[in-house]
Design goal:
This protein is an alpha/beta fold and 842 residues long. It has 32 helices and 14 strands.
């Protein structure tokens, strides 16, 4: 080491001497003297030698790059979270090319007065006070499970009392379907009061799912009646003692419609990040076994997950039965790099009053006490309730031949082999308010354990337990009965709801089909010929353009044509990584290419984006999507080509395609996929609509190589719309498969015929007299005949095909260059391709 250092010094001395002996121009000498004069001034200015400052700067740069590399994903997540909390504009989840909220690559402006890029000092953590601890304990008492207590404590610290923050949100949802049982009424009111206790700085947001009730044909599919039922239920909560000071009711029909451009793209982004297996697990919230699922039932968990982010919920305060879909929301945060996950505070699910009922059922009036029950109803139900004093094995197990309840396993998180609904009511309803007591058999109890012990030991009879419970329940329900007797508004609402029940609310079989009506909205011409553009990729292909032109030409003469760009289906299928800019860029290039290749076809074609069509009437569109999903089993939509490991977004896109066709109401549609689903749905469900003609047709294959394994594909296997004519035009054709005499797969023949024989044109091949002389071809059959017989040499064929390809690529390049948007889009796609390539290597 010493020798090496000495040698370095000698070497440095030699170089310096040689440098000083080298002739120097007067100008260079003067510049050197000026620098030497400034060096001491620079050192004095900062008090550190220049050489030392350079070394420190270099070390800091290395450390900074290492930190950026390590924390890049975290920073990206933080930016996306801030965007989501601030604006919810698509949550920046589907438009990852938007640059986030921090200036996406632009130069930072230096702060005035020095300071440069110094970070703001981190604020010290707030002191944890007894009041904050009480808030935490009160909310934890609500949940049978909290995921996680540490996150809840952090949330209360950041947004709770005394934080100076606007506060935090809890959320739950309900569908106004008619009746409200005591768990939804009294039990929920108690839990809400605990979570929004004075000073907690929290707001409980109720998601009134009237839109979903409409979708499920509740109240005969009459939204006005559904809203009346919703207002009735709110009056029930008010009468049951719910403090509405910090409670907000948001009606889904209004919120989703008014902000459809936020809600539905968020749902599509949720869907694209999960496979079918994961979503099937969530379907237990509907008590469905996996093998019996309809396609719509995989859509419900995705929408419920979307609600969490749409409502900006900090805490999901729902029942344990919703735990799996709430966990889906937390997993989505990981996938979308959202920093702050929603806390899950799952409340207990009360048992049904009958043996083996894991929860109450609105469809079984004797499974629960309902808020409108009379005192006599309560007494009858409780006296007949299941009330074991000993554990019974297999109590309530499904009998032979009875279908199992897919949701049972997730109804309760605590072990309870007794499963006594009367004791359950006492613990979670009667004793829930602070300071509550329970009296039975002339004795008053202040805690649940004493009550349970007395009952199991025989010190309290079943009759005494039940009569004590009846008295307590009637005390809780009496204010509700009084409210609906004395309050005029509440009384009127109750009378209307009772009248709805008397009326026949079964939807008419001949009711109007809920769907998007694009001809009526003026978006497409009536009786059109519709063609779906392909899902985008970073590299649009010449084959895709040829297929689209072929399908557009299938429309009968005089019939208007529509080219439909499925940009939202692209997002849910994760095309172009769901990057909105890349998707838009693809279609800009694609349309410019079609205009270049055949301007006469595109000139009279209406081009419509799927997003524009949907947002013209989002409610009717998505109701039609869900109705399509209800009609088809999940296995039918998946078909033989899909597996449970595939993305659930593909299923959603297929349902959307059927709804798209309903919306356009075309006379004919040329599509390569989902044709069978479209035809079946029109035949089986849409008797009142004319089924469109379904001609099938793609352009001839112009692939340059045949690959059995997609993994072996290369860029030389096909032509792309953005290929450079001079670079790729000749090179790719030179490498194209061209076996002498083989006309079954001959790319040069296919390419020459597809683009060289259009409109009666001929292909002329130049060759010497000794090789047969020049020859012209007017049809593909003539080319194939000579090539099969050997009269046409592969080299001559490739030369002719190359000339054709060069003409096509030059036409494309010129057309894209003339279109400013397409030219810009081409650059966007190339930049996106580079970005994805780097991402793939990581």
């Amino acid at each position: 080491c010493t020798y090496g250092e000495s040698a370095f010094k000698d070497r440095k001395t030699t170089l310096t001497a040689a440098h000083s002996n080298r002739p120097t121009s007067p100008k260079r000498a003067e510049e050197r003297k000026r620098q030497q004069r400034q060096r001491p001034q620079q050192q004095a200015k900062c008090g550190i030698p220049l050489s030392r400052r350079r070394a420190v700067a270099e070390a800091n740069n290395k450390e900074s790059f290492a930190t950026m590399s390590e924390n890049g994903d975290k920073k990206s997540a933080e930016i996306q979270t801030n965007e989501a909390a601030a604006k919810m504009d698509d949550l920046k989840l589907a438009d990852k090319g938007g640059g986030g909220g921090g200036g996406g690559g632009g130069k930072k402006k230096k702060k005035k007065g020095g300071g440069g890029g110094q970070q703001k000092p981190k604020e010290p953590e707030r002191e944890w006070t007894p009041d904050l601890q009480e808030d935490l304990d009160r909310m934890l008492a609500v949940g049978e499970e909290c995921i996680s207590e540490g996150e809840l404590k952090g949330l209360i610290t950041a947004k709770g009392r005394g934080s100076g923050h606007a506060g935090f949100n809890l959320y739950d949802g309900f569908e106004p379907s008619g009746r409200m049982h005591i768990a939804q009424g009294v039990f929920k009111a108690m839990n809400v009061n605990k979570c929004t206790f004075k000073g907690t700085n929290s707001t409980f947001v109720f998601w009134v799912a009237d839109w979903f009730a409409l979708m499920n044909d509740k109240m005969g599919g009459d939204l006005a009646k559904i809203k009346i039922v919703g207002h009735y239920l709110i009056e029930v909560w008010k009468a049951a003692g719910m403090d509405l000071t910090n409670v907000v009711f948001k009606w889904a029909s209004e919120e989703i419609t008014d902000r459809a451009d936020v809600y539905w793209p968020t749902m599509l982004d949720v869907a694209r990040r999960f496979n079918i297996t994961r979503i099937k697990k969530c379907c237990q919230i509907m008590g469905r076994l996996e093998g019996s699922l309809t396609s719509a039932q995989v859509l419900y968990p995705l929408m419920q997950c979307t609600d969490v982010f749409f409502l900006r919920a900090d805490i999901c305060q729902l029942g344990v039965d919703q735990r799996k879909v709430n966990m889906l929301a937390r997993e989505y945060c990981d996938a979308a790099k959202i920093k702050r996950k929603p806390v899950i505070l799952s409340h207990h699910m009360l048992y049904g009053l009958k043996a083996g009922q894991e929860k109450m059922s609105k469809s079984d009036p004797d499974s629960a006490v309902f808020m409108e029950d009379t005192a006599a109803d309560v007494e009858r139900k409780i006296m007949a309730a299941y009330c074991p004093s000993k554990e019974e094995e297999d109590a309530g197990a499904a009998t032979a031949g009875e279908a199992a309840d897919a949701g049972k396993e997730s109804m309760h998180l605590t072990v309870d082999n007794l499963k006594n609904p009367c004791l359950d009511y006492i613990k979670h309803i009667t004793l829930s308010p602070p300071g509550a007591t329970f009296t039975a058999g002339g004795k008053t109890y202040t805690d649940f354990d004493s009550i349970k012990s007395a009952f199991l030991a025989g010190d309290m009879s079943e009759e005494e337990l039940k009569k004590g419970l009846i008295d307590e329940l009637n005390k809780l329900l009496e204010p509700v009965r009084t409210h609906f007797t004395e309050d005029e508004r509440a009384k009127n609402l109750l009378e209307q709801v009772r009248q709805f029940k008397k009326e026949s609310l079964t939807p008419s079989a001949e009711k109007e089909i809920r769907r998007l009506n694009l001809p009526k909205l003026g978006k497409v011409p009536a009786g059109c010929h519709a063609v779906f553009a392909p899902l985008p990729s970073a590299r649009p292909t010449l084959q895709e353009a040829l297929d689209a032109l072929t399908r557009l030409r299938l429309g009968p003469a005089g019939r208007p044509t529509v080219l439909y760009l499925p940009d939202w289906a692209a997002r849910v299928c994760n095309a172009c990584d769901a990057d909105v800019k890349a998707i838009d860029a693809y279609y800009a290039v694609f349309l410019a290419a079609l205009r270049s290749l055949d301007p006469t076809v595109i000139e009279g074609t209406t081009v419509l984006r799927q997003s524009e069509a949907i947002l013209a009437d989002p409610s009717n569109y998505w109701i039609s999507v869900i109705n399509v999903g209800r009609h088809f089993r999940l296995d039918d939509v998946m078909g033989p080509g899909m597996k449970d490991s595939d993305g659930v977004g593909i299923v959603i896109a297929r349902l959307m395609k059927v709804a798209d066709v309903m919306g356009m109401e075309p006379a004919s549609i040329a599509a390569s996929t989902e044709v069978d689903l479209i035809g079946r749905y029109f035949d089986e469900k849409l008797g009142g609509m004319t089924k469109p003609e379904l001609p099938r047709g793609d352009g001839p294959s112009i692939a340059l190589q045949s690959r059995e394994d997609e993994a072996h594909r290369t860029d030389n296997d096909e032509y792309f719309l953005l290929d450079d004519p001079r670079r790729e035009g000749k090179a790719k054709m030179k490498k194209a498969f061209c076996e002498p005499g083989n006309v079954e797969f001959c790319p040069p023949v296919a390419m020459a015929a597809a683009f060289g024989l259009e409109g009666g044109s001929e292909i002329e091949i130049k060759r010497s007299e000794e090789n047969g002389g020049d020859v012209s071809y007017k049809s593909r059959e003539d080319i194939e005949r000579d090539f099969a017989s050997g009269a046409l040499h592969p080299g001559d064929l490739k030369a002719a095909a190359t000339a054709v390809v060069l003409g096509v690529l030059e036409k494309l390049a010129e057309g894209i260059k003339k279109d400013a948007d397409a030219a810009k889009a081409g650059k966007t796609l190339k930049a996106f391709e580079k970005k994805m390539s780097k991402k793939k290597k990581k």
